[in-house]
Specification:
With 261 residues, this protein is of the alpha+beta class. The protein has a single domain, classed as Ribosomal Protein S5, domain 2 (2-Layer Sandwich), CATH 3.30.230. It has a 5-stranded mixed beta sheet. Strands 7-6-8-9 form a 4-stranded antiparallel beta sheet, sandwiched between helices. The longest helix is centred in the last third of the chain and has 26 residues. 44% of the residues are buried.
Length: 261
Amino acid sequence: MDRIDGRAFDQLRPVKITRYYTKYGEGSVLMETGDTKVLCTASLQEGVPPFVKGTGQGWITAEYSMLPRSTQVRKAREASRGKIQGRTHEIQRLIGRAFRSIVELDKLGGEYTIWIDCDVLQADGGTRTASITGSFIALVDALNYMKREGIVEEIPLINMIAAVSVGIVDGQPMLDLCFEEDSRAQVDMNLVMTGSNKIVEIQGTAEGFPFSMDEMYRMMRLGEKGIAQLIEAQKKALGKDLIGGLPKDGEKNNSGQQEQE
């Protein structure tokens, strides 16, 4: 079947990564996947949450928001409504977990927190996955800053990470859904994986009908292919600044810590 934008079923939207997009963040990236645009910023801050204090470890956490006119109809700022929506909490926790899974927190220079801020400027599907893929670049820039400043002796990066959406639309498994495809998908799934093809998180929901194990594996293979291409785009964007980032023996996962964001 033909897709809205003429892509093949297993084809990503065009990807554009612009580093140093804003002036002040230790890492700042404009991540564009098709018409979805997310500003990803990594900021270093002294101190850690109370449940980490005294452990000698650092922390990585995230905030996510959609600007009022990032969508076709103006979306009110969540702060003006007095509380953060459940979807926003879910995405923030997903982003934080993803990055804690690839950084050795005990080597993060003591009690420092890296804040990952993801601000959706324009939404056309896949905003959470674009946030993770773009924020990885910002995180690496922040870690390189910490090394230059003598805060860390070595870059405590275990692996690379990226994310992509997959789904079933009109019975056809597809990679990297735009909004119109996502809104009529029978199955919607988000996949987060490392540069060594290890799964960090799978979020999959039957929107229209239950799906089979065979269909799930087909979507997983599509996602794996897309993430491999996104990892290559990240490597190209970082160039010689990708210090570390290769899989280490005995890959450690920090994301099992109690989450109290």
